[in-house]
């Protein structure tokens, strides 16, 4: 079994800008497990522990779905927390612009994966990038105050591919390996 998820990865320059934002947020509170910037992506579907024999079928569905959608032009323009900034479990960066296409892609992936016997998504898709996870029982008043005052200059973002990632959990954090990638609007990129 391998742990898998499907996501829209970020361009390197966007990862670098998010790394700077995370460094700035780290200085406001240390009780958050921050995500490494190269591990930030827009998750379309978490598959979890998966039989390796399904990778080819999953990749075929990714190719099919990616070929029907054009790249998504949007921007990262807000910071927030789930469920809210005063009692967050997750610190996130919000995306605006053509998020409706991302929602449609996530729905198509969910439908395709259900045919492969993966569970239906329980929550509606919300376009966001997880920057950090708050350690249990933490109050982050200083960080919340900072984030409420901070104005993020919009970061242009073009999402142009769907990727099947393998996630290996280690004591130092997750390691993500790209198993398959398909460019939006094009035929198969690699396998």
Task: Give a brief description.
The chain is α+β, with helices and mostly antiparallel strands and 191 residues long.
Structural class: alpha+beta
Which overall shape is indicated by the principal axes computed on the Cα atoms?
A: globular
Residue fraction in strands: 35-45%
Sheet of most strands: 5 strands, antiparallel
The CATH class turns out to be Alpha Beta
CATH topology: Cyclic Phosphodiesterase, Chain: A
Count of the separate structural domains: 1
Q: Explain this structure to me?
A:
Helix 2 packs antiparallel against helix 3. The protein has a single domain, classed as Cyclic phosphodiesterase (Cyclic Phosphodiesterase, Chain: A, Alpha-Beta Complex). A hairpin with a 4-residue loop joins strand 9 and strand 10. The strands form two sheets. It has a five-stranded antiparallel β-sheet with strand order 3-1-8-9-10. The protein has 191 residues and is of the alpha+beta class. The radius of gyration is 17 Å and the shape is globular.
